[in-house]
Amino acid sequence: MVAVTTSEDGVQQIIVLEVAHVEDDLASSSSVSENAELATEESALEEATGE
């Protein structure tokens, strides 16, 4: 996720937030199965909302 903020004096800051590294996900079978569950929930949610 990338967030861009502008302070009162007009200075822009770009903040990059990395939730998880791909290498870490691949190394952990539990996170892979969690990601599969999240993907399943997302697709079910998309079907329910029609998006």
Please describe the topology of this protein.
Blueprint lengths: L1 E5 L5 E5 L5 H6 L1 H21 L2
Antiparallel strand pairs: 1-2
Structure commentary:
With 51 residues, the protein is an alpha+beta fold. It has a domain at 20-51. It has helices at residues 22-27, 29-49; strands at 2-6, 12-16. Strands 1-2 form a two-stranded antiparallel ribbon. Strand 1 and strand 2 form a beta hairpin. It is flat, with a radius of gyration of 17 Å. The relative contact order is 0.11. The mean pLDDT is 70.
Order of helices and strands: EEHH
Please, what is the oligomeric state? Answer: single chain
Instruction: List segments where confidence is low: pLDDT < 50 over at least 5 consecutive residues.
Output: none
Largest sheet: 2 strands, antiparallel
Structural class estimated from helices and strands: alpha+beta
Count, helices: 2
* 3D shape: flat
Helix content: 40-55%
Describe the structure concisely for a colleague.
The protein is of the alpha+beta class and 51 residues long. It has helices spanning 22-27, 29-49; strands at residues 2-6, 12-16.
Characteristic key phrases:
single chain; 51 residues; alpha+beta; two-stranded antiparallel sheet; 2 helices; 53% helix
